[in-house]
Structures
1.
Amino acid sequence: MIQLSYLDYSAVEGKSFLHRFSPKAKLAGMGLVLLGIITLRSLPALFSLYVILLILFFVSRVPIKIFPLTLYPLIFAILFIFISRFQIHFVLFIFLKVLCGSTGVVLLLATTPYPAIFSVLGRFLPSLFVVALFLTYRSIFILLNVFEETQHALYFRGGIQWRHPWRSLINISNAFGHLILKGIDASEKMYESMVLRGFKDKIHYKGD
Amino acid sequence: MSHIHLPDGVLPIWLWVAGFIGAILVGVILSRLHKKEDLSRRLPLLGMMAAVMVLGASVEIVPIAYHVNLTVISGILLGPSLVFLATFVVNVILALFGHGGITVIGLNTLTLSIEGVLGYFLFHLFWRGLRKLGIAIFLATFFALFASTLSMIGVVSLGTSHYEELIHQDKDRGVFEFKLMKEKEDHLKEETAKGEVNLKRFISILLPLGFFGWLLEGVITSLIARYIRRLRPDLLGLGGEPS
């Protein structure tokens, strides 16, 4: 989740040609990638799509620290291997589909600031849902700060040690409990300030 | 911990389209149950709890991607209808980080929200019967996660003929595939019966992994509830009765 700040930094500060593309075009591009994932049935075609996405990823100068995020869904894809009795064609096929999807979305988020994405989504999704998306995204950053402080506090209380599993579980749970309570407090303050600024079920983005 | 985040391109089109329709229908019905002002007032809380779930999903507690979902505690704090909407938002955000597919947001929402909604009702049922917070939360979490895992297995098993087709497609010639109708997959059932697809193995790997996860999340959720009860007992809606 720490990569989220890199994603956001890359989306806002990046200067590549992909960063300069309109969010609408990039969302349409992502739609095409998804269409490819759903409809392509040959390995070379899927591999070509993945190579194109990789080239775009590196040409866009997205921080390399973000790249492991594109590999993460493979952990879940591995479970599908057991369905197929380890047939190499099926395994490669699933892995390439998963990699194309994850590389596409990470590339989209790393080159497009999230308010721009939500602004486009707000044109065809219910406003309350888009507000919920926006507030969640904003809340993640608020909670990440709390989480970092909590991690330091956890470290001083012994952190997570395999030799003391029960104490570790209590520490993890207290950290999440602390995060939830801080989150609830922050949400009350957030609502007060939103009402003060004239919030009426819709967040207006720059350019609306 | 109960579920896997289904990726794009694995499930048949009819299944994930049905998942989207189902999730949207449930979302619309549940949001209609709330007054608009009430929903709008609780949006920041919904967003914050969704953010807590996203953070929970991103903290790997045990390697091989074991993480807490925090859906049951979110369900208890938000209520069954808001936790469904929060789960929908969580799946959209997670899909944007590549953590679960975009096309399967609907199905992932339906399976994951079972934890929050069922957890809420089971918690209140066990609490009424047992009056022990820790045990009530542990049991509610354990059974809610078990139900969610079963539903995920159900979803995966619905695509059996599609996996069979994917396994055999290297024999076919062609670059594109576009099948919207379930019927078109049915002629593959004979081949499926021959058994290239092995769901039993999938289930036999998933259930023991899941069982460990249900226990772990049950314990963690109980400890979180204990922490919240010490500081803000009003949030749990226990009616001030001690245990």
2.
Amino acid sequence: MNPQVAHSRGRSLHSLGVVSGLAAGAWLGAAEAPTKLVTVGFSPFLISLGMVLGVFVARWTVPVALKGTSYVWADLRDKPHLIVWGVLAGMLWAVANTLTVFAIRNVGLSIAFPLWNVNSLVGVFWGWLLFNELRGREGSQRLKVLGGATAIVIGACLLAYATAAHGVHATQGAATLGILAALGAALLWGTMYIPYRKAYISGMNPLSFVTVFTFGELGTMFALAAIFDGGAANVLTSLDQARPALFWLFLGGFCWVLGDLFQQYAAKYIGISRGIPLSNTNQLWGLAWGVLVFGELAHMAGVAQALIVGGSLIMIAGAAAISLAEAPADEWREWHVAMERECARYGLDRERVAAALTGSDPASATRSSRRWWELLIVAAAVAIFVWLAFQAEQQAIAIDVPWLLILAAASLVLLVGGGMLLWKRSRFG
Amino acid sequence: MKRSRITATLTDPHLWIPVVVLAIGVALLAAIA
């Protein structure tokens, strides 16, 4: 497929990528909400492992129901070299997520969150350097993306500044380590988008990539917990003791899987330099859950509230600028060069990869056969969630039910709307 | 996986960026934990 044709298809896929990025923001933000319910006192490794276990189990629910395992298996057999990249991305995620738990413990969520959201700028840099994103002669679109990404970071800093006055009492040494941990997480998560983009310019389906990703994630997280948290036996005992809180972490993991799938589709259709800043609007959603549902900042002064509104508006403006920055034909040609490079290196079928990159992979359009045991897998994963739900203990946290319903409904609208659009345009390709 | 793809993966200059960053992350974690 020549770059001109790809560009004309790409124009129609731009809105698909933008909707995916925004839906990712909603669900990645919602993933933070259940973790707020966890009583402080568990080890950071245990909290991170609980979430990763939830992510692993959740991966075998909706994603399996969407495509089935035969399709994923065929996709992996076709591009086995990407298994290494998927596992590597999962490892990066696990280490970064654990660093964020330490950062939250030392400096609080309100400071740590915007610091690790700098990952979007790291992602923009790698997208430009390695995958020819934001290249070409037309500078206005590039400016929109860079301006939008910077606005999102500035908005995040304002939100942090406004909320920082509440409850951070760490010593200077602990605070420095907390900030380093948050910045480290930004570097790791920003770099994790290299494997994401690598997979998509090689024609891999996001559902296949997420499958491999969760194995890397779970293996690394278990190893980290065993090494740093007193051995494997101790980890298993701690998990058993944390059972009353595990459901909330699993629920966070479930929301995260949905958010990450949307993020993967955004990275596929509009690249990481546009997709990642859009999905980083998850901070707005995290804030909305904290403020509206948990009433975290109810006693905040007027100036701080104005800063929060201002910071949120700047973030929204940044996201809007990126949404309008459609990749011009020049840039599509540059993407095509990066795709050609991967095809040459790994001996991939150029036509097929080009089709997959524009959401029209023939293998994705055909209805893959389903096996009886896929139903068993989905049923087992759902049963684990139900079992944990019965063991979950009600947490002593006040919740504003009307706002909870409103935010849940808004997230569901994005889930259904984004899902339908992905099905219509690409059959989840 | 064919041998040529293994070689192509191991000699892919992009591979070493996430590997080095992962090592930095683990070292940071070891310092903080």
